[in-house]
């Protein structure tokens, strides 16, 4: 399902910026798979969605580390809640599992189509070491990329976005030329609206209840464009350009 409420057409943009984890990369699936592996070894039954709720709550903490390094700390809290063994081996397993998370099935094809029309920018709260793994799996589609290692901060901090704006300005563009595309209301959609960007919400959890492993926003921001999958954005862009 595609919902378009924006006045500005997709043909008006030169750049598309992306949240990566949760929008292009299925980190929730990686968390569930890693925990399922630990649970099988321990002979424990767990509810994957319940585990995501514990993870989401753990990410609110002031002592949270950069993603995905923080999975070790978060696992300790998940283990305590769900009765799993908490040890260094399992904490490392979870960090590695999320560091090796796979793209959503439509991500690679959609990015290739969008790359033919726009300069693509990755804006991720993941560390560079993890992003480099994700980027390879996605087919190396990005014109530019920004991780927490370079920005020194995480979205939704406006400072993260301003570093991207400055980079685009050096290329001769402006934030008005960027369509910001993301799954997270908390990290991306709300702040992009506050900063005056046009945005596209990829509602990856449209068939599920709640916010899963993503921090819940204080309030919902109605996006300019809404798609249930990234491929819908690529298809809509193709139609907009007359293909």
UniProtKB/TrEMBL annotation:
InterPro entries: HAD-like_sf, HAD-SF_hydro_IA, HAD_sf, S-2-haloacid_dehalogenase. Coiled coil: none annotated. It holds the Pfam family Hydrolase. The keyword Hydrolase applies. GO terms for molecular function: hydrolase activity. It comes from the Bacteria. Keywords: Hydrolase. PANTHER family: HALOACID DEHALOGENASE, TYPE II (AFU_ORTHOLOGUE AFUA_2G07750)-RELATED (PTHR43316:SF3), HYDROLASE, HALOACID DELAHOGENASE-RELATED (PTHR43316). This is HAD family hydrolase. It comes from Paracoccus alkanivorans.
